[in-house]
Amino acid sequence: MARVKLVLEYDGTNYVGWQIQQNGPSVQGRLQLALQKLVGEPVTVVGAGRTDSGVHATGMVVAFDSPRSLPTKAYWMGLNSLLPEDIAVVRADEVRGDFDPRRWAHGKRYRYRVSNRRSRSPHRRNTHWEIFHPVQVATMAEAARALVGKHDFQAFRASDCQAATSNRELKRVEVIGATGDEIQFVVEGTAFLKHMVRNIVGSLIEVGKGKRPPSWVQEVLEGRDRTKAGATAPPHGLSLEEVFYGDGPRTGETDDD
């Protein structure tokens, strides 16, 4: 029995998230259904993390044990012929039998997109948070620097986050004025807390709008009080862009995202 690793892209608009749930269709559920049709029996797929309802991915990594011996090209082409148009396999590889996409992940990169044009955009409604307000990229970038490094991110975790500790390390928090009416937030770290990226973006937008000074983000971080931070940014602006791996399992915190 071979273990197969897939890299997926998906538009999360029509799904309750990655993980199978009772209240609607999930990306995991659609993938497992397509795999069952391809290999002829039920297959359980393990993902690198849990994306919420409406969150997208260009680099979700998953793995499963295949009961059939097929060339990796067959998984890539076969699954893409069976999956709905909003889910695609972009790569398939056979990997070690003990590979675990969640426990072996050494880091992830997320990208959050904000549209601040004066009128709404039908083309951005499912991929951007539309705020209809000018924001200052420079002040947000200044505030974001306080978040890089090892910190206690208690103030930026969801109230129902189940992680044992809120200590995390962010390698990169970058604010990019991609175009005149689009801002992108790139957040890269070793592990994440539930809603952590969206809570960070919501707080940085408060700074960008001029409602708070750049120093406020560091005060919130050090205060460790979720109620003092900004509102949670909506899910549809967020995309899991890449999962990073080493040669074996990672030690330390795992995601609760």
TrEMBL record:
Active site: D52 (nucleophile)
EC number of this enzyme: 5.4.99.12
Catalytic reaction list: uridine(38/39/40) in tRNA = pseudouridine(38/39/40) in tRNA
CDD domains xrefs: PseudoU_synth_EcTruA
Coiled-coil zones: none
Protein's UniProt keywords contain RNA-binding: no
Superkingdom of this protein's organism: Bacteria
Region: Disordered, residue numbers: 226-257
Domain Pseudouridine synthase I TruA alpha/beta: 9-96, 143-245
Enzyme class: isomerase
UniProt entry keywords in alphabetical sequence: Isomerase, tRNA processing
Biological processes, Gene Ontology terms: tRNA pseudouridine synthesis
Positions with a binding annotation for substrate: Y110
GO molecular function annotations of the record: RNA binding; tRNA pseudouridine(38-40) synthase activity
Keyword Isomerase: yes
Entries under NCBIfam families matching the protein: hisT_truA
Function as written in the Swiss-Prot or TrEMBL entry: Formation of pseudouridine at positions 38, 39 and 40 in the anticodon stem and loop of transfer RNAs.
Protein family per UniProt: Belongs to the tRNA pseudouridine synthase TruA family.
Quaternary structure (record): Homodimer.
Protein name: tRNA pseudouridine synthase A
Gene (UniProt): truA
